[in-house]
Amino acid sequence: MSHKTTAETYFAAWNARDADAILATLGEGGTYQDPSTGGPISGEALRGYVTAIWNVFPDLGFEIASHSDDGASAQWIMRGTNHGSYHGLPPTGRQVELPGADFFTFDASGRIASVTGYFDGGVIPRQLGLDIIVQPSEIGPFRFGTSTAVSTGKRDEPAAFSVTYLQARDDESVEEVRNRSREALTEMLGMEAFIGATTAKLGHRLVTITAWNDPDAPRRLMREGAHGEAMKFFYDGSLASAGYTSVWTLHRNNGFWVRCNACGTMARNAADGEACRDCGEVLPDRPAYW
Fold this sequence. Notes:
Shape: elongated
Strand order of the largest sheet: 1-5-4-3-2
Order of helices and strands: HHEHEEEEHEEEEHEEHEEE
Distance between the termini: 62 Å
Largest sheet: 5 strands, mixed
Number of strands: 14
Number of helices: 6
Radius of gyration: 26 Å
């Protein structure tokens, strides 16, 4: 069997979504790597990798754009539909199209000794509607991360804020905390007193600031639902090495201000339908806080 035929058999196994057939094209100790594997993988690690991809894109397939005569390289276009969870996020149902190239080496038996794949790792996240953020983890006293806002759409002026800080033990714990936080925030959307929340991830540090129209409402979270269940893992030390929770009630309210569309000045808008103090025109409605 020629090297080119072996490479074609390898791609056919991917298109058939047959992990055994993929592994069969590799020789003893044969490896695969691409920008997302963190280095060469083989055997059961490779089986787990391809199976995970198929779980996210069950209809995944490769179209070969060009193939060298000696089988050493191939340009391809990978296509698939996102019907499975991608990095813990719910399926979008969107189709993705990723161009890339693989480079092959072969052992003495003619089987694949190595596959090295190249592609832009930002293409699929962008096609799934995700932001790609490139930034340092820290510079001097400043630390950088990502944040998320959760909104009920309510325009109540908050009567209290809860602040939670967790120092996760490791990367795996960070993902566990984030997954449990999403479950808790989803439940909180159904609470009458809940207005909205903002979360931040800074390395292993996770912070949540939550707005309420009743300062007693956060007490329920300590005992009930997904948040109450997550607290058990906090207290047994399996997720975090440190933590802090608090509820802050209103000390001073400077009110909500909006820009008048008629004269351009900022004006205090305590309720919908109020007039601008400078020109008398009706002010725009207040947006939701979160």
